[in-house]
């Protein structure tokens, strides 16, 4: 830091220690040319910020976000159901122990340990998932009501939002949902025999900056693929959604 | 901003850094496509060697170092060859804007694109990303004195295109 220019730069860059800064500021007070040099450096920093900071507000391209997605976070509930059915006789309706269920989901999909806490939903799930005879997992309570009543355009209630609704090739309706919270979770449920059966659950991306995003865009890619594989035609629009709801989600 | 929360995984912390990584990439490359290409390559490299990142050190500096290396030994070779960015590329970068600011941004980005690469990297790290000299010198693998002299030359060149802001104030 020998030249005047480098001292000015170091001052503007915040690289002077307290003593050097105080000495420099004393000089500054007495030297108009030095003040102008500082002003020019500050203007340069401002111009650079003006030129490059807008990048910070651009949406990050999906390819970049995808590169940071954990691999294969999808929990395939069909496999879980098969495993349960194989080792348990049909039982009456009951709420499963969530710990056992979470462990089961993790084991069923062969996921790493990290998935356990991420699938530990932020609300007590015993109230909204139950095991049906035969081992199927079905929506109960709040989740059941939301899947029956909520439209994609509705604001989330208690962090629970319904996303995309589709008609399937085998004549059913399926709907995705996202539960926001400390461990955002996305799922896919299909209407069968008068109940919403859960097809898949997966950790969802946290909404950026705390702002809620449309549920479809928050769905993990693997879950979107499953939706895509099931659907017969386009996702329902708002009118289609209302019509299906009016029919009790029967086709 | 620079260090992840203790409860955040490195993967999540890198995701949170993406906007800054993209900004730094714009200062390094001359085209936005190259910039995102660079971030992509760097992120993939970082994920393959997450075990090499030392907790407690700055994740942003670590990522900038990976980006610098990725630029020099991979992305630069396949980058767009133009000496200076095309106007339409910049217009797209900047978006709809009032003319005065647009011209000012264009001037700054064009001046940056004309700087030698070693100076662009120094400006990107210190003047745009706000790294202390010591961190920036470590990212670039050079002594602090070399960093400050590169910065001094870059500042001189950039000031030349900015004119004299003192006149209006």
Q: Can you give the mean pLDDT of chain A?
A: 73
Q: Compute the CA-based radius of gyration of chain A.
A: 28 Å
> Which structural class do the helices and strands of chain A define?
alpha+beta
Beta content of chain A: 15-25%
Question: What's the short version?
Answer:
Chain A has helices at residues 4-12, 18-30, 32-52, 54-57, 62-67, 77-87, 98-109, 115-119, 141-149, 215-218, 221-230, 238-246; strands spanning 75-76, 129-131, 137-139, 160-167, 173-179, 185-192, 195-203. With 251 residues, chain A is α+β, with helices and mostly antiparallel strands. Chain A has a five-stranded antiparallel beta sheet with strand order 1-7-6-5-4, with helices on both faces. In chain A, strands 2-3 form a two-stranded antiparallel sheet.
Question: Could you please describe the fold and organization of this structure?
Answer:
The complex is a heterodimer of chains A (251) and B (169). Helices cover 45% and strands 16% of the residues of chain A. Chain A is α+β, with helices and mostly antiparallel strands. Chain A has two domains: 4-57, no CATH class; 68-246, no CATH class. By secondary structure, chain B is mostly helical. Chain B has a domain at 1-81: Rna Polymerase Sigma Factor, Chain: A, CATH 1.10.1740.10. Helices cover 69% and strands 0% of the residues of chain B. Chain B has helices at residues 10-28, 32-48, 59-75, 87-94, 99-114, 117-128, 133-140, 144-162. In chain B, helix 1 (10-28) runs antiparallel to helix 2 (32-48), helix 2 packs across helix 3 (59-75) and helix 6 (117-128) crosses helix 8 (144-162). Chain B is globular, with a radius of gyration of 17 Å. The A-B interface holds A 1, 3, 5-6, 9-10, 13-15, 36, 39-41, 43-45, 47-58, 60-61, 63-65, 67-68, 70, 114 and B 9, 11-12, 14-15, 18-20, 22-23, 26-27, 36, 39-40, 43-44, 47, 93-95, 101, 104-105, 108-109, 112, 123, 126-128, 132-133, 148, 151-152, 155, 158-159, 162, 164-166, 169.
